[in-house]
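call fold(seq) -> tokens
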Amino acid sequence: MLLYIHIPFCDSKCYYCAFNSFTNFDNYKEEYFNSLIKQFQYEIARFNLKKGLIETLFIGGGTPSTIGIKLYKRLFKKGL
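ret:
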């Protein structure tokens, strides 16, 4: 199974970018990850997913490196 996680945050918006992304929304990053975790837990239960089923993880969208490692750790501990 493949999983794509969209990170809509950027330090600046490139003129050529077509992704849904935002600048100056740093105060929403933790709330966004809280929502990702809730959605992830819901989908695991809904599809009865087993640990280790996700073989490939794509993280993209805006600039994923604008997110601190502690938020990614919280997400990954939930079953990826």
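The chain has one domain: 2-76.
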